[in-house]
Amino acid sequence: MTDGPDLIVVGSGLGGLCCGALAARHGLEVLVLEAHDRPGGAAHAFQRCGFHFESGPSLWSGLSRWPSANPLAQVLRAVGESVPVLTYSDWGVLLPEGDLRVGVGSGPFLEAVRQLRGAAVADEWQAFMAWLQPFCRAAASLPLLGFRDDPAMAAVLGWRGLRAGLRHAPRLAALRGSFGPMARARLRDPFLLHWVEMLCFLISGLPLDQTSAAAMVTLFGEWFEPAATLELPVGGSQAVADALVRGIRRHGGALRCGAPVERILVRDGRATGVQLSSGDCLAARQGVVSNASPWDTIRLLEEPGDWGRQLSQTPACSSFLHWHVGLRGEGLESLPVHHVWVGDWQRPIDAERNMLVLSMPSLLDPSLAPAGHHVLHAYTPANEPWHLWRDLEPGSAAYEALKQERGGLLRQVLGRVVPDLEERLVLELQGTPRTHQRYLRVHQGSYGPALGADRGPFPFGRTPIRGLRLAGAGVFPGIGVPPVAVSGAIAAHHFVSPSRQRALLEDLGV
Length: 510
What we know:
The protein is α/β, with parallel strands linked by helices and 510 residues long. It has 17 helices and 19 strands. The protein has three domains: 7-50 and 60-83 and 236-314 and 451-508, FAD/NAD(P)-binding domain (3-Layer(bba) Sandwich), CATH 3.50.50.60; 90-228; 322-445, no CATH class. Helix content is 38%, strand content 18%. The protein has a seven-stranded mixed β-sheet. Strands 9-2-1-13-19 form a five-stranded parallel β-sheet, with helices on one face. The model has no long low-confidence stretch (mean pLDDT 93).
């Protein structure tokens, strides 16, 4: 076995990159291994004919200001990196009630509710937001980069952190469950409940009664501030991944792409390294962090045991349809950067073909498309069933026919925003759950584990194998960019002393 670094991270999704960057910043020798030819996982991008296509997250916030409660912003600052962003303040929503353009922040949304539903419903929303504010302060009282899944967390937070935790203890306890009971206790108007459930599904892939209360109050704490904005990283999501890679290398770590891991090696109950698909074996002096999904991590273990068999039964969110479009852009400048479409409130929010997201980032960042053109990423967010695609061979006539059939809804909704769409089309590429599975190497092309907060909190990334930790959407605090950043930080800090972790918080001032 070739001598290796202190820590090997399997997978360069944002959770794995945050883990690697922080561990390197703390002085560990780190190697991140990625099967794909570029880092980022779902946050990677690709180019065709001068168009820069996004493959993953399209809604960003909290990166442009400091101090920031966004853990990704905190990780970037900790490793000496930043990402320039462009800001915008509204988005389009295509709802059964009609087409709206809604401003981000408390005031613009309140005015939209007043015009749509009347003064009484606006008052109901305002009262709800006022009631939520103490919960938002409670969620912000404990720095997410201070989390550990061992008793040493008390030493990391220190007396000030523990005192803040005690002061907010009752509200923090309420945030351990799902957001459903909190919303239903205070909201009666159907539109308001539908709106909140839409936001829940956008950030977690789960409906209202399964989405984490902590995640939602954190979102409301950001989005509904008076000066709130949404953000677009200059260069797209790939720029975020690239900044984390720079942070890893700045502190002496390394990234190897095109290096798929075949096996996590375990000896005497301890993770000792990895075997690559090439047959090469690399030792890890302190341990291994898997940023692969729970199901894919289990496949990397020769003898996963009862724990592994239980983990393999983790329920999965559905997958995606992606539609990448290049189009002539004259006259589109007034469009919102984002649209969200909901087909029918009477169907479950996670029902197939009931929600779409449309993102046209070149409206803000013209470098993402050739001059006079725009680039668009349309996708069904975690609501495309895997079973429809499971038995079809990519490239077959049946596969191509299903692509055309299922993708018709994307074309139809975009046509509602761009009526002369067909005349503008220059390039279009389609991705299916099989595409998602292939490039992200994720079980069933899934968005991530469907672990409802109503059934208890997400598990931490601990395993019964010494020196093996998990990071990513399958562990605390769950799905979404800020949660996976936290998961990566927790995984890194398992290999770091509490004093070093506390020193990091002091350096950041969080």
